[in-house]
Design goal:
mainly alpha, 1 helix, 0% strand, Phytoene desaturase
Length: 19
């Protein structure tokens, strides 16, 4: 599921951005 994959990538990017 491409949407789920991109969603996880966005969440990981957000996480790294916030830390």
């Amino acid at each position: 599921n491409p949407d789920e994959l991109s969603m996880q990538c966005i969440l990981i990017a957000l996480n790294r951005f916030l830390q």
